[in-house]
TrEMBL record, chain A:
It comes from Hyphomonas pacifica. InterPro entries: Cyt_c_biogenesis_CcmB (IPR003544), Cyt_c_CcmB_bac (IPR026031). This is Heme exporter protein B. Belongs to the CcmB/CycW/HelB family. Keywords: Cell inner membrane, Cell membrane, Cytochrome c-type biogenesis, Membrane, Transmembrane, Transmembrane helix, Transport. It is found in: Cell inner membrane.
From TrEMBL, chain B:
This is Uncharacterized protein. The keyword Nucleotide-binding applies. Gene3D superfamilies: P-loop containing nucleotide triphosphate hydrolases. It comes from Hyphomonas pacifica. The lineage of its organism: Bacteria, Pseudomonadati, Pseudomonadota, Alphaproteobacteria, Hyphomonadales. Transmembrane segments: none annotated. NCBIfam families: ccmA (TIGR01189). Keywords: ATP-binding, Cytochrome c-type biogenesis, Membrane, Nucleotide-binding, Translocase, Transport. One of its GO terms (biological process) is cytochrome complex assembly. GO terms for molecular function: ATP binding; ATP hydrolysis activity; transmembrane transporter activity.
Length: 221, 192
């Protein structure tokens, strides 16, 4: 087996995202919207904002990951590209993983990188914790996008499957959401949380591709 | 499996919903064969081709492919942002063949002029020619074609029929669902 089909699937997903197919900037808009509107909604008390900020950004990241997932596999089903990818001889799981990873790179990683900007909206102090949080957002986002990909693959043949994706993916988000929020709180019991977050991301990376691959085979059947 | 067949299928049967789509379909494609699938709309020609390609699992029977195949279906596999040039380049890379032949393929398919136009602005015939260009990227003995003449103009039909007869002369086989006669000389027809 050669890696050429997997690399090509990754490249196609990247160019598609930037060409507007999956709307790479939409999750960013959603994320920014949450960061701008929540401080307006809950008032200007700096202590309150500082306390809730990381948690709200974390939830916004999880929800933003769902915004464009609907299209990443559905478009392939509709235009026939999925049939071609499944006949390249590369495992469907690896093709799916390449696409989910490309989607995270274009739609998820920018959110993590810009998170310090949004953290400022929540009166965060400009110190190294912002960089730590950036890493946690990147790590957790990867798990969100892979679990979301499972929902997207399962609902690839369902028109307007957005709700279905949320229903499938949200329970899978729970461990990542819990450990991520715990790691960022820095409160009691949070010492091992970053490692648990990393473990939940690794678990997603190891398991989600097989679920996505099986779901895509079913979608083509 | 019949001896020396590039692709053979035995006793294929398929159920869709509560209905038997077809059953006891057997065929064998040898070098140089052109098998045409005939049947009314909804008889299951596309489903049969998908089974032969390994995309759909048949309810009964089995398919043996002893050689790689090309797949040209109703849905061409073009992304709206892809141009004929980038589409063929992508698949040349994905299949690990030389990308240096793409200009020659574009020339043969008469796609030089629209080679940089994204697929959302291409005509149906140009999209179809782009998809058919994939056949020339890599030599594969089996061609599975679902209504390949759709949307093609007279030149396009002639071009495709020429490609098919060259392919058969090189020892390839084609299995195609084709409506009407279309000047297509088949070695056998399968009614489903």
């Amino acid at each position: 087996m050669s890696a050429a089909p997997i690399i090509s699937a990754f490249r196609q997903a990247l160019t598609e995202a930037w060409a507007g197919g999956a709307g790479a900037l939409m999750p960013l808009g959603f994320f920014a919207g949450a960061a701008v509107l929540v401080p307006l909604g809950i008032g200007t008390d700096p202590n309150t904002l500082r306390a809730v900020g990381p948690g709200i950004l974390w939830v916004a990241l999880a929800l933003a990951s769902l915004v464009t997932l609907e299209r990443i596999f559905q478009a392939d089903v509709e235009d026939g590209a999925l049939d071609l990818w499944l006949q390249t001889g590369a495992p469907a799981s690896m093709i799916a993983a390449a696409k989910a990873f490309a989607h995270w790179l274009t739609a998820g990683l920018p959110l993590a990188i810009l998170s310090p900007v949004f953290a400022v909206m929540f009166q965060a102090k400009a110190d190294t914790s912002l960089l730590t949080h950036m890493g946690l957002y990147a790590l957790g986002g990867l798990a969100f996008f892979f679990w979301g990909g499972v929902g997207a693959a399962l609902s690839a043949t369902v028109r307007r499957g957005g709700l279905l994706i949320s229903l499938i993916a949200l329970p899978l988000y729970v461990p990542t959401a819990i450990f991520g929020a715990l790691a960022m709180s820095g409160g009691p019991g949070s010492t091992g949380a970053p490692l648990f977050l990393a473990a939940s991301t690794l678990f997603a990376l190891a398991v989600a591709p097989f679920a996505m691959g099986a779901a895509l085979r079913l979608a083509a059947d | 499996m019949s001896i020396g067949a590039l692709l053979s299928a035995t006793d294929l049967g398929m159920i869709r919903g509560e209905r038997i789509l077809f059953r006891n379909v057997s065929l064998a494609a040898h070098a140089g064969d052109a098998i045409v699938l005939r049947g009314a709309n909804g008889a299951g020609k596309t489903t049969l081709l998908r089974i032969l390609a390994g995309l759909t699992r048949p309810e009964t029977g089995k398919v043996d492919r002893s050689a790689p195949h090309h797949w040209i279906a109703h849905r061409e596999g073009l992304k709206p942002h892809e141009t004929p040039f980038t589409h063929l380049g992508l698949w040349a890379r994905a299949w690990g063949t030389s990308a240096g032949q793409i200009d020659a393929v574009l020339d043969k398919m008469a796609l030089i002029r629209p080679s940089g136009v994204s697929a959302r602005h291409l005509s149906a015939g140009q999209r179809r020619r782009t998809a058919l260009g994939r056949l020339l990227l890599q030599e594969r003995p089996i061609w599975l074609l679902d209504e390949p003449l759709t949307a093609l103009d007279a030149d396009g039909r002639e071009l495709l029929l020429g490609m098919i007869s060259e392919h058969r002369m090189r020892g390839g086989a084609i299995i195609a669902a084709i409506h009407g006669d279309a000047g297509f000389d088949s070695t056998c027809e399968v009614m489903i």
